[in-house]
Specification:
Helices cover 58% and strands 16% of the residues. By secondary structure, the chain is α+β, with helices and mostly antiparallel strands. A two-stranded antiparallel sheet has the order 1-2. The chain has a two-stranded antiparallel sheet with strand order 3-4. Strand 1 and strand 2 form a beta hairpin. Helix 2 (17-33) runs antiparallel to helix 3. The chain is elongated. The termini are far apart.
């Protein structure tokens, strides 16, 4: 039995970060279903069933290249989202001592000390220099 099970799982994709995130959403939906009414429970149950089927399909798939590509898309999206929240948290945290300006050439956010007046600053990402007005 152990050999048959081992042979079945050979070449399968398995669990990755996307599968773990899907599992976390599945568990969160299960907890939410404890506190909602019957109509919402039916909808959440359908969503969680689809999520569970999709999760197992990805884990048991032999098309590893496609699953890796899906995982890379997920990781890129998660990274961008995390950076966005971190930037806005820091903007709020340092709002009294610093200002954030966008580089007109590459679009990078630059944190500058809050000193009133006209200044020139160089972007650390692209190296271009530009004028900044802080009020």
């Amino acid at each position: 039995m152990k050999q048959k099970l081992s042979a079945f799982f050979k070449g399968r994709y398995g669990a990755d970060q996307l599968a773990k995130a899907m599992l976390a959403v599945y568990v969160a939906l299960a907890v939410i279903m404890l506190f909602v009414g019957t109509t919402a429970k039916i909808i959440l149950n359908c969503i969680s069933l689809i999520l569970c089927i999709l999760m197992f399909y990805r884990m048991l798939s032999k098309n590893t290249a496609k699953r890796m590509q899906e995982n890379q898309i997920y990781l890129g999206t998660r990274k961008k989202t995390k950076e966005w929240f971190l930037l806005h948290r820091n903007k709020w945290k340092y709002r009294k001592t610093h200002v954030y300006k966008k580089c007109p050439y590459c679009g990078a956010q630059i944190r500058l000390p809050r000193v009133l007046g006209e200044h020139r600053c160089a972007c650390p990402k692209c190296g271009d220099s530009f004028g900044v007005s802080i009020k």
